[in-house]
Amino acid sequence: MRANIYHLKTERVAGVMMMAVLKQELDSKRSMELLHQIFGHMSMNTIQNLANKLDVGVKVKERGLAPCKCVACAASKAKRMTFARVPVRKSLPLEKLMVDVCSVSEPTVDGATLFLLVLDEATRFKWVYLMKAKWEATWHIKVLANLLCVRFPGQPCAACIPTKVEFIGGELTEFCGEHGIELTTTNSYSPQENGIMERANGIVLPRIRAMLTTTRLSNFLWGEALLHVVTTLNHLPT
């Protein structure tokens, strides 16, 4: 390397184009870093194999290469962090309810292909409702809200609902305003904001598949399996 520019020298040996890297008094880590950048950030294990084998068409004149840390590779492979690194869990029951709708390709005996899952953030208690259409979600939420207000009067209540067509209707907004329920929605294409429900779905759905596989029951019985799974989870410690 001269003037911060890498120089490659090629020479023809026995009809095969061989390539060598020009270095001047570089240590093993610096040599690995140089080769790693020249070969387009190739794996360092592959570079070591190239340095030890001569039958691959490329000859690297270097021995004893030591691995090094490439900051550019680490930065380019980094993934986006979750929305809340340390989320604050609500402490009061019914202080915040999380809502989500999932679809299943196989219809149940009654023809349901959707289910509404409601989760209490503080206690992790769950309610589930089978649905045939998305518009039924608003009706189930209203029924559940009335039930909770009658059974637990005076409890604060807020609902976090994903931004979907079946939830944005003015009927639900008007209902929440009349009953003093704070209604919040998540942003579109941001499942990390509703991560609690995403993890809940990741627990419920695999258990449904496992139950149907173990019992060798038909897939159209997933609704009954769902009700059993949610009831069992509500009686187990979180």
Automatic annotation (TrEMBL):
InterPro entries: Integrase_cat-core (IPR001584), Retrotran_Ty1/copia-like (IPR039537), RNaseH-like_sf (IPR012337), RNaseH_sf (IPR036397). One of its GO terms (biological process) is DNA integration. The keyword NAD does not apply. Keywords: DNA integration, DNA recombination, DNA-directed DNA polymerase, Endonuclease, Hydrolase, Magnesium, Metal-binding, Nuclease, Nucleotidyltransferase, RNA-directed DNA polymerase, Transferase. Residues 89-238 form the Integrase catalytic domain. Signal peptide: none annotated. The keyword Transferase applies. GO terms for molecular function: DNA-directed DNA polymerase activity; endonuclease activity; hydrolase activity; metal ion binding; nucleic acid binding; RNA-directed DNA polymerase activity. Transmembrane segments: none annotated. This is Polyprotein.
